[in-house]
Design brief:
It is a single chain. By secondary structure, this protein is of the alpha/beta class. The protein has 6 helices and 10 strands. The chain has one domain: Rossmann fold. Helix 6 links the parallel strand 9 and strand 10.
Length: 228
């Protein structure tokens, strides 16, 4: 049996502070990986939190031409659609980075997911994750059969909040060197203690990456009980 994940919590004043701290973590990991292995592989989730992180990353000294960026998940929608994570991600990706978008516009999504899986590194140095108000992370959502997929690295979900999605599966997340959680806003507050406790009744609590850094703002930390 694998050891329990090491989840380290850091509470920061606000969403901007979370973004800046996350950018510092990513930049440091990138510099270390590039210095030792010549390349940094990074997977980024959807939602709004990575936008601010990438804007802060623009101030960091990183050799972006040695960085590969994959998507953790993507909504099945046309190219340029505002529902696509990629639509908002492209403008903030640093110049020179090797961005690998998920091919969600192809007619055979299962085959496209398999091809995307073949493009993944053996293990990401870092994966960025968020959490939904229902405890989902990536597009691993409550009740979806993809939660139990262990023989594929990328899978297609059922419909969730009006759209199907393509997502990496738990094995990909669990192989990563570091899971970097960015959680902001009071609507996420009930989920933070459950994530920290490894509550497997929510999808986020099932992520078993050995090293996890959980960055939350004060609003999201409202229900975290400080150790006595």
């Amino acid at each position: 049996m694998s050891p329990a994940p090491d989840r380290v919590l850091q509470v920061l004043p606000d969403a901007d502070a979370v973004a800046r701290r996350a950018a510092g973590v990513v930049a440091a990991a990138a510099r270390e990986a590039i210095a030792s292995r010549g390349r940094f592989t990074f997977a980024v989730s959807g939602g709004e939190t990575p936008w601010a992180m990438f804007k802060a990353l623009a101030e960091e000294d990183v050799s972006w031409h040695e960085v590969g960026i994959w998507q953790v998940d993507e909504r099945v929608a046309p190219h340029g659609d505002p529902d696509r994570n990629l639509t908002s991600l492209v403008p903030v990706i640093p110049a020179g980075a090797d961005l690998r978008p998920m091919p969600v516009t192809e007619p055979d999504l299962a085959a496209a997911a398999d091809r995307y899986a073949a493009s993944l590194p053996a293990a990401f140095e870092l994966v960025h994750l968020g959490i939904g108000d229902d405890g989902h992370t990536a597009s691993l959502v409550p009740g979806d059969p993809v939660l139990d997929v262990t023989d594929r690295d990328v899978a297609v979900t059922g419909e969730y909040r009006g759209l199907r999605r393509v997502t990496v599966t738990y094995p990909v997340l669990d192989r990563a060197g570091l899971a970097l959680w960015m959680i902001t806003g009071s609507d996420k507050a009930p989920m933070v203690p459950r994530l920290l406790a490894g509550d497997r009744s929510i999808p986020a609590g099932r992520v078993a990456t050995a090293e996890q850094l959980v960055l939350v703002d004060a609003a999201a930390a409202a229900e975290v009980v400080a150790p006595s």
